[in-house]
Recover the amino acids of this structure.
C-alpha cells in the first residue's frame, strides 16, 4: 500500500500534472486506495513544492537573467517581463484581496496550465504576501482536488447525464 501512496504523492508533485493528473490516475488504475485518502495524498503532494517555488522561482529567474548564456537569459527575462506585466495589470484591476481571490480561482479551476505551480510562480514574480498566497493556493488546490475526484468518480455523469 505504501508504494501506491508514494505513486499518487509523486504524480501530484509533477509540474502541470499535479493533482489534476494524480487523482484520475489513482482512481482509473484502481489502486485500491480509498477515495478520501487519494484526495488527501494528492493535496499534500501538490502543496509540498509550493513554498520552494514561492521562495526560489523569482531568485532563479533573476539569476538566470544575468547570465551570459543567451537561451537562459532570454527565457528568464521573458518570464519576468511577461509575469510582471500580466500581474501588474491584474493587481490594478482587482486590488489586494481581489488578487488573492483571482489566484484562488486560477488554481481551483482544473484546466491545463493552471494549478499550484503556475499560481505560485505568478505570486513569486509579483512578490505577493507569502501567507495570503499559501491560503489562496491551498484553497484552490482543495477545490481542484474535489472537482477532479468528482469527475474521476463519474459524479458529473450521474448528476448531469451523459
Amino acid at each position: 500500500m505504501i508504494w501506491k501512496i508514494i505513486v499518487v504523492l509523486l504524480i501530484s508533485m509533477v509540474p502541470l500534472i499535479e493533482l489534476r493528473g494524480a487523482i484520475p490516475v489513482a482512481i482509473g488504475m484502481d489502486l485500491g486506495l480509498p477515495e478520501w485518502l487519494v484526495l488527501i495524498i494528492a493535496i499534500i503532494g501538490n502543496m509540498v513544492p509550493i513554498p520552494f517555488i514561492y521562495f526560489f522561482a523569482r531568485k532563479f529567474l533573476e539569476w538566470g537573467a544575468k547570465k551570459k548564456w543567451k537561451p537562459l537569459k532570454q527565457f528568464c527575462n521573458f518570464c519576468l517581463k511577461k509575469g510582471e506585466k500580466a500581474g501588474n495589470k491584474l493587481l490594478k484591476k482587482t486590488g489586494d484581496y481581489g488578487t488573492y481571490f483571482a489566484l484562488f480561482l486560477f488554481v481551483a479551476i482544473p484546466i491545463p496550465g493552471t494549478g499550484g505551480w503556475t499560481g505560485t510562480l505568478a505570486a513569486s514574480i509579483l512578490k505577493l504576501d507569502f501567507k495570503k498566497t499559501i491560503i489562496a493556493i491551498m484553497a484552490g488546490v482543495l477545490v481542484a482536488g474535489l472537482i477532479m475526484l468528482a469527475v474521476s468518480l463519474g459524479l458529473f455523469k450521474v448528476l448531469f447525464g451523459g
User: Anything to note?
Assistant: The mean pLDDT is 90. Residues 70-108 form the longest helix (39 residues). The chain has one domain: 2-160. DSSP finds eight helices and no strands in the chain.
